[in-house]
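Hi U.,

Before I forget, here's the chain from the pilot set. I'm dumping it here mostly so it's searchable later in email.
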Amino acid sequence: MRKLTFIAACLLVIINLTAQIAPTPAKERMKGLEKKSALVANSIINQVTFRNVGPGIMSGRVVDLAVNPNNTTQFYVAYATGGLWYTENNGQSFVPVFDSVAVITIGAVAVDWASGTIWVGTGEVNSSRSSYAGLGIYKSDNRGKTWQYMGLPESHHIGKIVLHPNNKNIAWVAVLGHLYSPNKERGVYKTTDGGKTWKQTLYVNENTGVVDLDIQPKNPSVMYAAAWYRTRTAANFEESGASSGIYKSTDGGNSWKPVTKEGAGFPVGKGIGRIGIAVAHQHPNWVYAVVDNNFHVPDTAKKINDTSKYTINDFKDLTKATFLALDNKKFNAFLRQRRNGIPEKYTAENIKEKVMNNALKPSCIWDYLMDANAALFNTPIIGCEVYRSEDAGKTWKKMNEKQLKLYNTYGYYFGKIFTSAANDNKLVITGFDIEMSENGGKTFKPINNVLTHADHHIAWMNPANDRHMIIGNDGGCNITYDDGAHWFKANTPSVGQFYFVTFDMETPYNVYGGLQDNGSWFGPSNHQENPGWMASGSYAFKPINGGDGMQVQVDWRDNTTVYSGFQFGNYMRSNKNRRASVDEPDADAAPGASETTSVFADAENSKTDSTIYIHPRGDLGEEPLRFNWQTPILLSRHNQDILYYGSNKFQRSLHRGEHLETLSNDLTTNPPQGNVPFGTLTAISESPLKFGLLYTGADDGSLHVSYDDGYTWQSIKNELPKGLYVSRVTASAFKEGRVYVSLNGYRNDDFKSYLFVSEDYGNNWKEIGKDLPYESINVVKEDNKLDNVIYVGTDGGLYVSANNGNTFMAWNNGLPYSIPVHDIAIQPVTNEIILGTHGRSIYIAPLQEVQLKLKK
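Structure:
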């Protein structure tokens, strides 16, 4: 999307604020793997096994597929953070084949089916908040039984691997490069010795990598590469640039020339975002491209607004005179739209009076409703376009006759195009929907249905029967045999991407958590996956809400009152057994302000009398509140009528989420804003020992403590590294003054483990965990019985210390060797540890044996 004017003005400041945090060099990350190996080998607790409890019914994000063309019941599914899985029975069951590798996040997979050789490029290219950095290329010559590391450690994010059709030693890799920092190790890499050595044959610049790559099926000397300029920081995402474009090679990828130049018919300039390419099979000179065009829609192409009512755009750039001239009837109708969230005390008349008296600015309505995230959905970009060249890239023609509303404003998350091997006019493109054209891209129609999830990333068409397709999306894998008229799910792996996990006090207790793009779920802790639920029609895990599921809190007094919600702080209190019916927002970009509260319209009107919507708003004229993607909430265990909530300020309700009050000033540095909400609270912790002792942490590194239940706050960030994301603050249950904090440099491509403890309420800090590998820390948790034992979850796994953090050991028995652990909870009654992983759902293990060993 095109950045707003104020975003461009702030960008330089934002860059300066984050430039001091250096990306982790690949050599340090590789040393970290040696550290991890030692922590696994020296672990005294690793015979205690974790068990996966699901939910298997809700899958995770699929980024690539590799299907055997000679036996299409055999294929591999690559998940963004769930590893690589193989099926030989058309998706009825899968086995993991990549779990022993040092990094589980995947961007691309390619298979030589004749020899059984598998190539995996780690690190997905969808560039979302949860797109983890990989370590390069891995290869297996025995169908995934063992793996060899083949290099390219600075690649971080790999979009495509192309194998030579006739020479098993030749392969090409599309490297997008770092997500949060510039680097020169991006572009196209080629190997001629089976991956032992690589040559960078295409390099554009340090912020432009290659996201897609294709080869002419009958002439492997001819190749096309899609270059994409994009930058991302904690506060701003720039997803298009003038150096985006298509390059061509006629010598097997040894050299490249740009083919999307001015005058060639393909759009050029700063508005060109992600590009996907596909070479036709029957016409060797036909090349298709799908582009995320971030140029604005021309005024002449905009739809005429309905003049009978106001929209948010009618309140943009108003002078005092034009504001006062607004029609009161239409203004009042706009104010009463529930989705706006404007306080009921306001009417057109009293707002105009305040503007007349200069108590409010003429921009008050726009400022109140339009934050950086909402602006994404209010930017009139062209979006998805399909082009075709019929002369091998010399000239291009736009094919789609109507605007394709496939991307909204987050086309960076999709951007792939596929052609049928039998019909060069049959195309499939991926986006929020998945759409098909049978006339060369002139018209498209959605082919997804209720059985397919939204947000599609990959499609495969059977070369022998192009009505047979396999697709991958944020909800897993689907298969059709009739061009999408009917689909079935191939989702048996438990690969959900959990942000958060908690529990209740029922017997057996239930576990709860929020998943990326898949809502919040709960289910029994003793659950074991089996096909019996298909016969009964009742799966053990149940959904609570839609969207990107975030944090969950459960009132232990009844074990049915649940606080849950979706991205950017949209929460509700509900009865888990009487789930409110809500629509489901999707994708990394989230709904804008005009859509946010409407998602819970049904919840607000629900017959479930306990269901309320929880989302604080300031008053007109005040600076808008800011909300983190995973906005923190916390139910006080001292008094479970009290709910704590964190925007960029601290909010508290004494009435179970109702009457939410803002008690603090801004608890961040109030940094310059880009198009990603920044300067937001990320963590809240309450002392288990003292009511009213609270801590908050923020995405800009701010830390505060309150001794009086949030009425006053003191900064406690001195002595700690500056500018890092506070991933967790944990108040001790053993000593009142003890508090742990973990900092996370992922948003700077800094993967060092930052872990600290204070014994005096945060006035002084001591660094601990110095032997942890280079894996960003997501959570630190105390043991429930031993005051010297702590657990740490990182982007690579779980680690345990028995000496207050001075040294650690790994605990991964039953887990993949590497898996992002986003959250840890300990159920005190059963004495079990619960892991919420981002890619392999929920794991549980008993703690008694572990505690006995650690006590010694």
